[in-house]
Please model this.
Amino acid sequence: MRKSTNQKAWWLVAPVLLLVAFNAFIPLMTVVNYSLQETFGDNVFFWEGVSWFEKILRSERFHDSLLRQLLFTGMIIAIEVPLGIAVALSMPRKGPWVSVCLVLMALPLLIPWNVVGAMWNIFALPDIGLLGYSLNSMGFDYDFTQQPVSAWMTTVLMDVWHWTSLIVLLCYAGLCSIPDAYYQAARIDGASGWAVFRYIQLPKMKRVLTIAILLRFMDSFMIYTEPFVLTGGGPGNTTTFLSIDLVKIALGQFDLGPAAAMSLIYFLVVLLICWVFYTVMMRNEEQ
Amino acid sequence: MSRIEFKDVRHAYPSAAGQAPVYALKEISQVWEDGGAYALLGPSGCGKTTLLNIISGLLTPSEGSILFDDREVTQLPTTERHIAQVFQFPVVYDTMSVFDNLAFPLRNRGMPEPRVRERVTEIAAMLDLSDRLNQRAAGLTADGKQKISLGRGLVREDVNAILFDEPLTVIDPHLKWQLRSKLKELHQQIGVTMIYVTHDQVEALTFADQVVVMHDGAVVQVGNPIDLFNKPRHTFVGYFIGSPGMNVLPCKLENGQPVFANNLLSSGYPVDTDISGKLEIGIRPEFVSFCDDGIPVEIEKVEDLGRYQVVTVKHEAEQIKMLVGEDQSIPSISPQIQFDPASLRLYCDDWAVETPDA
Amino acid sequence: MNKKWILPTLYILFLMLPIYGLLSMSFKTTNEILGGFSFFPQQFTLVNYIKIFTDPTWYVGYINSLIYVVINTVISVSVALPAAYAFSRYRFLGDKHLFFWLLTNRMAPPAVFALPFFQLYSAIELFDTHLAVALAHCLFNIPLAVWILEGFMSGVPKELDETAYLDGYSFWRFFVRIFIPTIAAGIGVTMFFCFMYSWVELLLAKTLTSVSAKPIAAIMTRTASTSGYELGLLAAAGSLTLIPGAIVIYFVRNHIAKGFALGRV
Model:
């Protein structure tokens, strides 16, 4: 799209800027403040400078959490994105089933995250849950409370169950907004189904997909409630992702300083990855 | 290239169960000669796009059959009909270059690459796109994109007809004329059948050799622009063509001659006195003039359009438009008008009552 | 064409299984749930639902949540629409950075931010109000709304705007009567996501409320911690949380599925 330069566009953006900055600025400054200080409670602070940052960046516990997190996020994006696109492509565009499909697919997204964790906890218990019971009666030795692999599989499955619909809904809306004439022209041009996907559907979905992938990346990197309720970070610390670790430090040990510093480090990691991804995706747009 | 024929085609879009079907196209039997330049003219909703989509195979008619060169193609899918269609707004494959866009239909059909290159360069030259072949198609202006759409149709060597569905809608006004001329030029160069759908009479009348006027799902008249203007066979045609359109006024018959406002209007031809139904006369504003002894009217509005003026007058409840030359004066005291009898046409139930010489 | 049904059907079945688990749990007593696995409730009971509908501390939670979520959705979407248009159509100083900065507000782990938020909203005397939660949720919902809307708006060619201006429309008249209907699909999707993210957000909602505006999700966690796991009750409460969101998506489904016809001004 050829954009015209117009500084008056700032007026259109001003309300957004106000509302978001109001919520962002002061809390952020407070957290930065914490990250540079040490406290033993009672609102007494001692200046620490960047020593928290140094300690964390060197700690093995941090490296472990980070790696676990990256692995987890990588896995779920690799599963959810193709699955989401495939489901969106195969959903009907018109007809009575559309409403049914949309409502049913949206349901997992609407459940409070603590309930999601609790549901899957029960669902996966070897003796009383549907999943756990079925898997064990089929001969698999499955117990997510004891085995790290089972715990990982369950956590990933839970996330796929919970969040794939986000990708489906976004991609579906993007697909629906492709005018019929494009498909008609493709028929006239003799294009195959794959060509239609590659040259019409995928390009038109690019923006929507970018948002979906960024959202999933950010949300999964920050994931806390569901895995915490499901596994508590265990067995041991095998499913302790970064937020769980963070909360343990912040609230468990009441170490606001390191927790704040860790938050900021994680924030910067996410920021960097998102920024790279976004720049690559949008590279072709401006000509 | 081929001759396209419609035989008793009717089409109703699927309606809810239990409801009577609504026919978007009612009973069309029409022949489109090979190599002709046709325009399908009519207001929105008259069924033109439906008709076009039936020709290209994007739609299968609920009744009737379509023949290409006497070969039944009604059930044939779009890809096998060898039709090209240009849509209302430009359809280009954004991720591809202009060259690849034009090459796309050929590559899909397995044409060898050197031949593809030849064809694309040829067509690009015809459309003045040669200097943009390596650009990304998404970066072109609307008229450039429409040219690409058009090019994808022209580049195929086996095209039976090219269909245009209001292709100039999103084009800038000053570029519309350019594109229209280009289309006419291409038609003369290549000679492929072209069917051009529009609601704009200027586009239709300048592009086409034969204009098919549609109204409410039916073909109302087919003819060249001059015939449509002078001898409209339906009140809709008279009203739709010409700017301003024909005046249609209710009338009565007395002794076989039409009477309007108690004025006997000689129609110049004898009329069957037995006809009954809604009777109207049609007279174009060009053929209404002021006189000393005619139908009394009141002047409502005068619009000065430069070389002529459009005067709207009123007789009782009826509004009549007239065209008056720029230096002709408009009488201010009890103006009266008359109709040129040679240009008067009589209509019964919207259809023209045939005259011996028509 | 019929083969296309397999994937959505399997997917929906996969989604429905745990939800069925939740629903059937809500009709069981906690004892039955913990006693062993049963596909159908052996002793079907409505006691959990009765508790929720009769105990004000429970159903008020739903009402509170609904109130602030609706307020937030309305604010977020209305404010995001003009901004998204600006990002989509115009170049201005700092536009790319501003656009990306919006998203960065969703990138920080929330745990540590709870305390500062509490201090901020207490300072402006909005603590324990629906408005506080609605405003606080703007932090992550407005950027989301702007990003999603901008994505949809960029799919609408600028020729539409230009044609409208040529036809004599003023900016706001064009925006309201032509543009917004054109991106109806995007607005529907955006509304749903704002609703959803606000509805399920727990940390800020819990932090900024105590009694009068306490959301349902917070009430559920309270149950989980104080009286052990009252699973049946939790399941019933969880099942009920599905309803408002399902209604929202039912109403916007037409917007999602309709798509739009380009250029029909």
About this structure: The mean pLDDT of chain A is 83.
